[in-house]
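To the team - glutathione complex, inputs and output below.
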Amino acid sequence: MTEEIDFYHNPRSRAQMVHWMLEEAGAPYRIVPVDFDKGEHKTPSFLALNPMGKLPTIVHRGVVVTETAAIIAYLADTFPQAGLAPLPGDPLRGAYYRWLFFGAGCFEPALLDRMLKRPAPEPKSAVGWGSYEEVVATLKKALAGGPYLLGGTFSAADVYVGAELRWAMAFGAPGLKGERAFDDYVARLVARPACARTLAV
Ligand SMILES: N[C@@H](CCC(=O)N[C@@H](CS)C(=O)NCC(=O)O)C(=O)O
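Output:
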């Protein structure tokens, strides 16, 4: 069985986040381009891999993984030599899970609420992600100890949250650009050779 990962990719998608992670992990991969305009993500063969018809999707040793955060966590665990996830038993594992899941479960939907001008969840509501302002304030606090979400240790959680932040800042999401905590954090991440290589694509 081939070690090389099939990485279903389109540059105008969250696949960019996984691309950065593949480079950080030093994983062997080949890009399988998926043309949205031609509907290649809705063909029967692609839907057999990911019934959501969405990118990113990877196949590694015959195993299909979808969902950006899940792929990033899978790669961190599959390539432990890259040191991108604290090992089980390490107290930092808690913070690692916390921020990775916060990125996917709170930051992303709150950001999309704001960017798509959807109403924010009511205060004290059961909607799981809270308001955009609460999410941004929480991230700012998390980065106060910096330089990374886990303090001195760069991890796959920074890949997920950092890539979202970079995207949000590029598209003018409020409360981010001009805030030193976010400006410095994103500049630090973008300067990483693995990130720079994927942004060049
Ligand atoms: N929850 C998914 C979202 C994936 C997603 O929505 N991908 C978009 C591109 S960024 C897509 O493939 N859209 C095509 C479509 O839904 O038709 C994840 O985190 O990976």
